[in-house]
Fold Protein-arginine kinase.
Amino acid sequence: MLKYDKDVVLSSRIRLARNIKDIPFPTVMTEEQGRKVIDLVRKAILGSNTILSTQFVEYEMKKLTLIDRQSLVEKHLISPDLSQNTKNGYALIKDDNTVSIMVNEEDHLRIQCILEGLRLNESWDTADKVDDLIEETIDYAYDEKIGYLTSCPTNVGTGIRASVMVHLPALTITGQISNILNSVSKIGMAVRGIYGEGTQALGDIYQISNQVTLGQSEREIIENIEGVARQIISSERKAREDLYKKQRIQIEDRVGRAFGILSHAKVMSTKEYMTLMSDVRLGAVLGILDVDINKIDILTTHIQPANLQKIYGIQLDPYERDVKRAEYVVSQINKNDNL
Ligand SMILES: Nc1ncnc2c1ncn2[C@@H]1O[C@H](COP(=O)(O)OP(=O)(O)OP(=O)(O)O)[C@@H](O)[C@H]1O
């Protein structure tokens, strides 16, 4: 069994939405108020007397190139929305990339902690600590009865979104996926694509999170998502086992073909990579291929458009990117010790 159920769960994320008392929400605040929010958050973290003050790096959206901002999105360190806010968007990101504090997104603060595998409780503990540190110097907009006040009513209360990013190739191949996702939606969970709201589920990867933030404690919300994640993990594992038992040749053929293309292609779009990667990841978990899934997951981040251009250090048009992507994937796949 893989550590933290990584055969199915790529990562766990906790994010907290917070606003500062007496400053209007980002949608209606002035530029000066936006600046003030940044100053307060900087002081709360970088000016604190804790080890955290030395571990965070600041990123001001307006000072970053489009590729740099896009790369942060591709690494899940900031949201697509924040990357587009070149007026007063700002982020503090921990040097090990596990914690990001997004400033002037939909709310003044979005604190997120992402860890590999199924580790929602650990992510919560970390996000909670950062939240407490900020609260030492900042007064949050908080109502005794309702809880934390947020820009969008769906986040009011605890302001928490707990999510898991899951890889579900076998449920997809066997056609059980729509039933599973429908039942998940029916019990009040949101199902999103790999880059969050409004994005596609590329590579059979889905993000499942809570919709409700009010009337339940943070721990209860986390327990619910964890419970759903555990059920999905066991359904996916069962589907993988059944599939491999009943259609051994077909699965080996599918995995082998995907690996063949990934190791020999000359031109490859992100979408094609994601489809093939899903089969190779499945093949690795089933033991058909001797490939480390941690390395596949790193490769999946590296081949995204902005990250690829950062790796090559040049700006590339879409076709050039497809050529370089194929070149990069082939070099990494064939580097056996590395993959
Ligand atoms: N479990 C996860 N692992 C890695 N990244 C995640 C995970 N869940 C969400 N993300 C990333 O966080 C970013 C924001 O996602 P999303 O829009 O779903 O969340 P949100 O900011 O909490 O939502 P909202 O603004 O709707 O309240 C996206 O880039 C998404 O890929």
